[in-house]
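Support request, please re-run this one:
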Amino acid sequence: MIINIKKTLIAFGVLSIALSFIFAVQDAPSDENLEKKIINDYNVYALNVPANLNFAGEMMPLNDPDILERMDRELLVNTYWQSNALLMFKRANKYFPVIEPILEKYNVPDDFKFLAVIESGLVNVVSPAGAKGVWQIMPSTGRENGLEINQNVDERYNLEKSTEVACKYLLDAKERFGSWTLAAASYNAGKNGIARRLKSQNVSDYYDLLLNEETGRYIFRIVALKEILNHPDKYGFNYRHKDLYKPIPTYKVALDTAVSDFVKFSQQFGINYKILKLHNPWLRESHLNNKSRKEYSIKIPKEGFYSTP
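Re-run finished. Output below.
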């Protein structure tokens, strides 16, 4: 009797598996239905280019078909590169509060925070030409504007100080060219580079210049990121405020001596070396020479935001 019951259960189990497979096959969509499902479930739309786009209050001449096509390209590329755009939303929430008041202090239009977005993605990167930091500042430009740049310290990685340098550069470029748009373009191509092209092509406006691809796309990329980051719903981006990266509150410690070991130094404040470097990326080595007894300002995160080492 027990053997018969076991055989019956086994047979029932086999039958159940077979029926499940049959129903699964029957429910599987045909190639034609699957194609329709893909089309219905995932759609890519052409975008309407807003008619009133501007950079720093200077209107884009979108009645020019060339300008319209170039703007359309950057809106499409940046809208449908969704992962990158979402990262920009997240990082902007963390770093724009640092950048915005400095731009305001120097009377540089707020739109220039989007220049930092396209320069670096709001992370400390290094270009093949040697530009560094969020604002991608070259060594000569940094030193000319008072930044310390050596193996021990590189203040191009200091967001506040490098933003101030960018502001000084842009104000000088605006005075030279009379246009914020040309000032922004010169941040990519150099002031002399833009001046030469304006003279050789006998024009006075960025949108009339024939430029290399990088500089030719530059303003359009800035305006595209400005439009998308300012209107997430319009371009299909969905997130909650808690999804965004948050600024970490810090306090400053004045330091006017050499430091032989930043690992031990950081532990005095209940953090580790990694956390110290995250908040002070301009410290390039694990020690500080400081033979001149210069006073540096070290950021230390407030208690409770990181676990103690």
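The chain has two domains: 54-243, 250-301. The longest helix spans residues 2-27.
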